[in-house]
Every structure is written in structure tokens, then in C-alpha cells.
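hey team, just a heads up i'm posting the complex here instead of the shared drive bc the drive is being weird again. everything in one block, sequence lines first with there labels, then the predicted structure for the whole assembly after. its two chains so it's a bit long, scroll down
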Amino acid sequence: MDYFLQNFPQQLVNGLELGSLYALIALGYTLIYGILELLNFAHGDVFMVGAFLAAGVAALLVHNEVAAIPGGLAVGLMLLIAMGGAGFLGVGIERVAYRPLRNANRLAPLITAIGVSLFLESAVQVFVSPAPVLVPTNALVAQTVVHAGNVESPLTGLILFAASVGLMIALDVFVFRTRFGSAMRATAQDREAATFMGIDVDRVIMVTFFVASALAGLGGVLFGLRYAEVDFFMGYLLGIKAFTAAVIGGIGNIRGAMVGGLLLGVLESMAGGFISTQFQDTFVFLTLIIVLLVRPQGLFGQPLADRA
Amino acid sequence: MAQPRILALAALATVGLAACGGGSSTGGTATNKPDKVQIACEGPFTGDEASIGAGALRACQLAVKVFNNAGGVGGTQVTLLIWDDNHNAQTAQTLQAQGTSDPTVLGIVGPMNSGVVLGSVTGLQSATPPLPFVSESASNVKVTDSGNSVAHRVNARDDAQGPADAKFMIDQGAHKVYVMDAKSDYSTGLADQTQKYLSDHNITFMRDSVKAGTKDFSTTVTKIKAFNADWVYFADEGPEAAPLVSAMKSGGLTLGNNINFLGTDGEEDPSIITTSQGAYDGAYATNITADPAGVTGSGAANYVTAYKAEYGPDSISQAGPFYGSAYEATQVLLQAIKNSPVKNGKISRADVLSHLGSDTFTTIFGSVKFDAKGDVQGGGIYVYQAKGSSMVVLKQVSG
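-- predicted structure starts here --
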């Protein structure tokens, strides 16, 4: 019991940091599902591409010693390119792999999603690197460790948490408080009716993909800064975890995805910290099964309609 | 650039020729040369373990090139097949099927991963005739303990490495060891061996397992600190070492200062120092085979020269832990083929297999002979330490 009490706060912090990353990716799943009822299985790989873009920018700057420019500026450039790049990649994927199938059997876009996922993984493996790639974080951000009582976290971990939560709140405001947000919610509720109301549905879907993918790109940058290493396969498991988070929260529900993500991160950290690292994932997916049995629509989901 | 390359190759060819001269008591004559001779080099050449496989493949290619320049098998050039199994036993089975059905494929250098060997050895053993292999890195005891005559390896076994690793840590003053594996046939098998020795010698330990591909080690680091470990032992193929030591560093655990780290073969890799941004500096790692750049002897030194000449001056730092044993394994297999009789333009795999079992081979590390199970006699475990930008040999150890 002593062991538990002593280590619980630290494992909670570990879990919240990891969870905020899950939440950020889960938002993308949930946004796109909310609008299109499409499970975008390529989303984890968009995150991976974003991380590689960030790593590329970082390597370029540090290698040419341009990083003599303040680290903050370099990170800003990484954010810009990774989020922009991932955003446009998302829009491109929608255009090529999903839009032509919008009226097809619902299985068809699911299959193309898996296809795009495999394509992105293989392309990065073949053309970029089969081995993990270093993000030279030492030259970019202070490697400070922040202490509070007997709990500690690297500064980059706190940045990860703060940036994720900040962006989630911004997204929530965007969807629920802006004109474009209402257009998104209208599209989610009834695409045809939204068209009749003069909403350019194609544009709404495009912007949704851009926002969801840019968030994944942001996740990629934060991941690179926190863990200093990216590889071509990292989007796979993280994508599945984020998808699980979205389902636990109630897929299609933005706040649900946030809570689901944080919950999953904490669960994983607790299971690993106090039960067994070996069965970490077993507990995570067991939770998913239990949630689905007890509350099939997820914690925050509503049985039908009024998604987004 | 071309000039020294040729010179180095010539130097190595002389070594190779001398070696072949010594071993070919029953060698085929030039009048009866084989029509076609093929061997395969198998390992994870792409994917997450390419850092281990890529250097081994280059070694294999160089060994075949040198052998062919020295005349091949009675004048016939050896064709090298490249089988990239991606650390996947099913992929390995598909690739190996090409070999078992083609009688001119006489042997395999590899597979490199214990899990791949254990998942595909049945197919090699049941082929007619059985297709022999010489692994440069598969260390799980079952690889040669399962009674398959096709199995050979030039590296030392887990039951030699585990105790040697544990003893090394104890000799360095270890009291509390955090023992980790990465959930593969190789890493759990090895961590079990190490754990057993620690427990037999009354050293406190805690066992943990992490998934391959893990990047977030904060949970693990919290546990290491709570356990108050003075050594972390991680049996791993390599890719997880950099994120682990980075997380240890940001958790306030500095190698050589308030904690020590011992890794295994896959972690005897200087690229981890770069990918961990220096956090790996001071880490120890044992390898089940010698690093040619770290041992004495002209064979190994000439090989390092030739490798650099062939692949560039910086190539050794990316060659991974097995570029020496892969060359050694290729030399062994090629000599066994050369020693086998040629009948009607054909060499039989059955003869290659029996020569593998009976002959003594000359390699860059000296002479090599297999015991009845296919294990190399006197295989050594070597301790390395990450210093600056390279892994430096400290000494040879045993359990």
C-alpha cells in the first residue's frame, strides 16, 4: 500500500502526459467520424508523417546550425510545417480515397482507409528510413526536469500536456461557438438538410479533414519533442489506442475523445506501474470491452443523432 | 579510392585462399566443377531491426565476393540470394521454400533472430535433402537443442551469455538489478537465464517486460526508481534501448553516476549513442560474438580494412553488432561447400551438412569447429562499453 501511495502521483502524471497525446489523436478520429461516419484508419499514419516532417525540419535546422536561431523559433517552424503538411495530406487522402466512395457501400472507404495506412507506412519505410530517426531535441528545447514534491516531469512532457489540452479547448470552442462550427455540426446531423440550408458540405468536410490531420501533425511534433525519436510504424499502435480512446469516450463526441484519451493514458500507466507491464495492453482493451458491454455508445456518446 | 579498395580486397583474398587451402582435404577438383552453387543470406535487412541486419548482409556479400574472386567453388562463382525475413517467421518460411525446392541452394547464412529460426526450422529440416544453416546471431538455447541437424551457429548461446552477463554485473558490485526483456523468443529466453543466475547468487532483482516498439518509458523509469535499482539489465534486439536510456536520463538516472546499464547483443551498437543524444554514454553491452575491430589478429584487422574500403570509411559505425559473425558464418558455409565432393556437376546438400559437422574452418576469428549439436566450440562473450561515439571492447567474460 505504501508503494502504491508513494508512486501513484508520479504514475498519474506519466499517464496524463501519454493520455493527452492519445486524446489529441482521438480527436481526429472522432471529428471525422462525426461528420462522415467514416473510421479513418489512416489517421495514425498521418500523425506519423507529421512527426517525420517535424523531425526533418529539426534535423535540417540543427544540422546546418541554423538552430542558433532561438529554439522557440525552430519549434515554431516545425509546428508550421508538420501541421500544415499533415493537414494537406489529410485533405489529399479525403480527395483521393474517400470522396469518390462517399455514396458507396460503407465497407469500401474502410478498406481504402486501411490501404492508405499501409501505403503511408511502406512509403516512409522505403523512402525515408526503416530505422528510428532521431529528433535532436537537445538542441531545440531545454532538457529541464520540473519537480513538484516527489513528482517530476521533463519540461517537454508538460509542454505536451499543456499544448494538447489548450488545443482541445480551442477546438471545442471552434466547433461549438463559431459559425463554421455550426456548419460542421449541421453537416454531421444531416448532410442533405445541411446542403439545403446553403452549407457547402464538401468544403466543411475538407476543413474537417484539415483540422483533424493538423491536430495529428501537432501530435507528431509534440511526440518528437518528448520522446526524441520517430519511426515509420509508430502510428499503428498509437492510432489503435487513440481509436480505442475515441470509442470509450463515445465516437463522434469531441469531449468524449478528450476524456477517453486521458483515461486510457492513466489506465495504461497504472496497469503498467502497479499490475504488470506485460499485461498493460490487456487491461486497456479489457476496459474497452467492458465499456462497450455496459454502455455501447461510449461514456459521452448519445445513442443516435446529435453527434459532433 | 579505387586503388586501396582493390589492394584491401587482394589482401583479404589471400587470407581467404590460405584458409581454403588448409581445409580442402576432400575438395572437388577443377575438372569436375559444379554447374551452379547458390547460398542465401537471411535476416531482418529492412524494418525495425535493419540496424542489426544491414551490416550483416554487407558482410555476407563481401565474403561471397572475396570467395568468388579467389576462384569460387572449383571455378564456379557462388550466387548469393538475399532473403529479407523482416524478423518474421512466416516471411522466412516463404523465402526458404525457394531454397528447399532448389537443390543448387546449398545453405543459409542466418536466420539472425532466434524466433525466426524456431518458427521455420522444421521446414529446413524436413526438406530433401535438409537445407543447412549457419546463424551468426540466433542465441536461444532451443535453436540447437531441438535436435535439428541443419542448425549451426557461430555465436555463443543464451545459457552462456545470461550467466556471463549476471556475473559481470555482480563483479561490478550490483545489489539490485532491474531485469527487462522485450517479449521475444530471444529476449525473454536470455533474461530468464540472467535472472536465474542472479537469483542463485542471492542478488535482489525485479523482472519487467516491455513491448517491442515502446517509446514511452516513463512508467518503467518510475518503477526503476521506486525499486532503487543500481543496475538495469535489458535483453533486447536494440530498437528500444535509446528511448529507455533517454527516459532514464530525464528521470534523473545518469549512467555511470547513480545507475548502471547492461544491454545485450543488439545494444552493442554505437548508433544508440547518437539516437539517445548521448544518454547511452557509459552503458555496457555484451555481445555473443567478437567485434572484428576490437580483437587482435590479422584476419580480423584485414577484414575491417576491406569492409571500410568496400562500404566507406564510416561504414563500421553503422555495421551493427554482427558484421563480424556474419562474415565468419559465410566463410564457414562456403568452406564446407568447397570441401564437399562434386558428382556429375552437382554438390549435394547432404554432403555440405556432413562437412559442416566434421570439418574445422578457418575464419577471420581463427579456427571454428561445431560440436554435435551445431554449437560453436569455445564461443565467447565480450563486454563492450559506449564511450564517445563508439562501443569499446573491455574484455571477454564467462559465467
